[in-house]
Write a structure and sequence with these properties.
By secondary structure, the chain is an alpha/beta fold. The chain folds into two domains: about 200 residues, 3-Layer(aba) Sandwich (Rossmann fold); about 70 residues, Orthogonal Bundle (Helicase, Ruva Protein, domain 3), CATH 1.10.8.100. It contains twelve helices and nine strands. The longest helix is centred in the C-terminal third of the chain and has 13 residues.
């Protein structure tokens, strides 16, 4: 069965009476070259496991099953269960969980299904919940080794952005705090069924053993980051002193910027992750 073949996939879909859901952002990958690059970049092997989010019809799931020790695929759409039973029937190392990934206990899921094996997350994510899913894996101490995700191009650009650019922001800093992000391959609309309106990009996020930057109060640092980019056209001084997320007076912010050698008129987009960590640590000490 070559599900990446559009005619074969269409035949299977029609035989089960499946209809694509716009609300779930369903677009099934049908490009073998992109599939191969995802599997290769993911790091899965015969000695490691894959946790797939949103298997759809099982196109990518089948490739992961061949390459890895075992696969658990989490699919929210109940109507896909009979179809997945059929497309994955030949593999005894695959199990499908009909759950919402945002509501599931990831630590429990991973412990029960993978034990102490290395786990790599692979996902073709709906655009509207890309960030919440990625951050759930990174913030819940899941122990996964990496995430290889298909996302909208503009989201990928933000993940890998450097300070000073228009794409650099809170998502860049959050992803880069936990991982080393790298672009794998671009997937044009024709690589999917049905075709989305925008291009997609596969990003590999290698989870770091320790966060990229040391900071005393992670929650405060991200509140500062959220404040800085919530009003990114404002100076950092004004954005922080008028932020609804933190309570820091203008004088304290100004003193911190001066002590750390930053121009008082600097904007948040000019600060690196380590700069935000230093700023947070200074403000923490001054409490």
């Amino acid at each position: 069965m070559e599900l990446y073949n559009p005619s074969q996939l269409k035949k299977v879909i029609e035989s089960f009476g499946f209809s694509f859901s716009k609300s779930l952002g369903q677009n099934f990958l049908i490009d073998k070259n992109v599939l191969d690059k995802i599997v290769s970049a993911s790091g899965v092997s015969e000695n490691s496991c894959a946790l797939e989010v949103g298997p759809g019809a099982g196109v990518l799931t089948r490739e992961l099953a061949v390459a890895s020790k075992s696969v658990v695929a989490v699919e929210i759409d109940k109507s896909l269960m009979p179809l997945l039973d059929y497309t994955l029937d030949e593999f005894d190392n695959v199990s499908v969980v009909n759950e919402d990934i945002l509501k599931i206990d990831l630590q429990k899921l991973i412990a029960q299904n993978f034990g102490n094996d290395d786990v790599h997350v692979v996902a073709n994510l709906p655009y509207y919940i890309t960030t919440p899913i990625i951050m759930k894996f990174l913030e819940e101490n899941t122990g996964v080794k990496s995430l290889t995700v298909m996302v909208q191009k503009e989201v990928a650009d933000r993940m890998v952005a450097s300070p000073g650019g228009k794409d650099y922001g809170a998502l860049s800093l959050a992803v880069q705090f936990y991982t080393a992000p790298k672009i794998v391959v671009k997937a044009e609309p024709h690589c999917f069924m049905p075709q989305p309106k925008v291009a997609s990009v596969v990003v590999h996020l290698e989870v770091q053993e320790k966060p990229t930057a040391e900071v005393k109060n992670k929650e405060q640092m991200f509140a500062i980051i959220k404040s800085a980019f919530g009003q990114r056209r404002k100076t950092l001084l004004n954005a922080l002193s008028k932020s609804p997320y933190i309570n820091i007076g203008k004088d304290r912010v100004l003193a911190a910027l001066s002590e750390l050698g930053f121009d008082p008129n600097i904007r948040g987009e000019r600060l690196s992750l380590s700069d935000f960590a230093k700023l947070s640590d200074y403000l923490e000490e001054e409490k």
